[in-house]
Amino acid sequence: MKARVHVMLKNGVLDPQGAAVRHALGTLGFEGVNDVRQGKVIELDLADGTSEATITEMCDKLLANTVIESYTIEIA
Which of 25, 38, 42, 76 could form a disulfide bond with 2, CB atoms 3.0-4.6 angstroms apart? Predict the structure, then answer.
């Protein structure tokens, strides 16, 4: 079974990578980009029957810094 975890900085947390991408897009001539938030996607190949609770525990303990990041889990 496959799971995909999307991790993003929480609203209000400074995103210097996103700001750098927004600035770079402007210098390349792309207008109208007001803000960029950059995150990460983690793909997991798991044993069949792995529970969503187990994936949540993985996120809480290692995959996301829950103080400044939020995450969503997508199971395929």
Answer: 76
